[in-house]
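pinning this so it doesn't scroll away 📌
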Amino acid sequence: MSLTDVNDNAPVFTSSATPSVAENSTAVVALTTSDADTVGTNPASFSISGGADAALFTITGGNQLAFLAARDFETQAHSYAVQVTASDGFRPTIRFRR
């Protein structure tokens, strides 16, 4: 008999929850997760799923959280709220707030 893995663990974020971003740039953070399962979507897929400032963000390259337009420290907010969801294709997604 052999035992096979099933997709019964949700991905867990390993990227920073509080990145610092230099003004006049768009890149925020490379989104990364770990998953105890050997089956399922790996790496996880990411989507913006909420947050008061969600409309200011996008996900590029499959795993890069980025501003749609560069932010200016002197004239714009200094902190932002965005919620990102990671999914491994089967397990319920988990939410990660930045």
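📌 and the second one:
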Amino acid sequence: MKGVGSLSSVRILELAPIASRMLTSGYIWLGIACLLGFFLAHMLLLTWADYSYVQPATSLSYLTIAILSYFILGEAISPLRWLGVFVICLGVFLVGQTSPSGALERA
């Protein structure tokens, strides 16, 4: 959205050029495609396992986002934030050690 430009007014005539740049931006469409892909994968996982098992696993996105932000966007990530990501991943690992009851009932 930084490439599209900032919104300085809410007038309809000024929104049209920004809306057209948004709708023709490949990055916006790539983001929408990624969101749809995640949604489909999430729904498929929910057919396999319980929500209490699937939802914590999606928290691994915090690690993915932190790594991609660091390497691709060049963002500075503080040690405290890395510690928070590590704690989240540790929690996901601990939850992952339990077997999902939905998968066992269907097997």
